[in-house]
Design brief:
With about 200 residues, the protein is α/β, with parallel strands linked by helices. Helix content is about 45%, strand content about 20%. It has helices spanning about 5-15, 20-25, 30-40, 55-65, 65-75, 85-90, 115-125, 170-175, 180-195, 200; strands spanning about 15-20, 45-50, 50-55, 80-85, 105-115, 130-135, 145-150, 160, 165. Strands 4-5-7-6 form a four-stranded mixed beta sheet. A three-stranded antiparallel beta sheet has the order 1-3-2. A two-stranded antiparallel sheet has the order 8-9. The longest helix has 15 residues, at about 180-195.
């Protein structure tokens, strides 16, 4: 039985339970590991020593799609980074423009130093999230909030609302290169930062 299948059964069993109660009810060679894995994947919440509560579908979906928490993770990171791509646009427009993402599928694009990729992978894994390199194919179906790592040797960034983001010039160049999608963002950036793009993009 998959953890997802077990989770659906737990939702119909008890909302709160103890390790011993679980072990008596569900035959398992290692019930503590099963509960640890269920908690790691967000299916149950560890309330205290030997006590768990089952997360409902709504709680599970919210946890997997918590955008604010996804960006807060970066603010608290000790590793250097710079938001790039659509996230550069998102930050410089103060959340005014977003493209190619929706509830349930929200990649966050960050430039990271190539030498620090192993550290980023460990950090993301410790936070119970997913990541992949920008030029690689995913090994599994990705959903919710996850991170796309763009390797680079040198990072240039500015801080906007507590987040490190690549310079505005880079974001404007990205929008121009992808003007079919980001022309409205260019207009917003032009109005906000007086870029002198009015005649071409307004």
């Amino acid at each position: 039985m998959s953890y997802y299948g077990l989770w659906t059964i737990l939702n119909c069993w008890k909302k709160e339970f103890g390790t011993a109660d679980f072990a008596r009810t569900f035959a398992s060679p290692n019930p503590r590991k099963v509960l640890h894995d269920l908690a790691k994947n967000g299916f149950v919440e560890h309330l205290g020593y030997g006590t768990y509560s089952v997360n409902g579908m709504e709680d599970y979906v919210k946890a997997k799609n918590d955008l604010e928490d996804g960006y807060e993770f970066l603010k608290n990171s000790e590793l250097d980074y710079a938001l790039t791509d659509v996230d550069g646009v998102f930050v410089w427009t103060r959340g005014g423009y977003n493209a190619g993402r929706f509830f349930g599928f929200y990649p966050i694009h960050i430039k990271v130093r190539t030498a620090e990729i192993p550290k980023w992978k460990r950090l993301v894994r410790k936070a119970r999230r997913k990541c992949l390199l920008s030029a690689s194919r995913p090994r599994e179906t990705l959903y919710g909030v996850f991170y796309v790592l763009h390797p680079t040797e040198r990072i240039r960034s500015e801080t906007v609302d507590g987040l490190k983001v690549e310079p505005l010039k880079n974001t404007v160049e990205f929008c121009m290169t992808n003007s079919y999608t980001y022309e409205p963002a260019l207009e917003m950036l032009d109005r906000e930062y007086k870029l002198g793009l009015n005649s071409e993009y307004a």
